What we know:
8 strands, 4 helices
Amino acid sequence: MDDEALRQVQRELGGLIDPEICGQGALAAAQVDGEFGYDSDLEADELAEELAARFRAGPHLGRLMLVRDGVRVAVGTRERVLGAEDITAGGEFGAGDRAVLLGGSTRYRLLEFACGHASCGTEYRSFYDERFLPRCPTHGAMELRLAGAAP
Ligand SMILES: [Zn+2]
């Protein structure tokens, strides 16, 4: 992805992202609490909803690297994502309402991946693409499991 394409993607993400982090170098050096992979087919409002669900499910998360089709494009911040949702959703989702993880949307669901070792943690994706499956640094490819299921 060249700089122009990157800027275009960031314009589309608008109020969800940290405007200070825009260049490839800044993205590479950005301090984040995790990654959020998504597909370029995802509509902006769907992405905003998925991101909000991710932040709500992880209270420790402040900043997430947005990975579009496997490419780092921006850093989403908790304040901006949840703030934007408050404006657009009008309190449709209760704070801390985990039900949204289990299928609040009828169009897609949050996918959870794990390597099978409880100590290794989980990764989340809003889409399934064999090219971009998350990997555990120790055990290799992670497997899809139902979001919200017991480990
Ligand atoms: Zn592992």
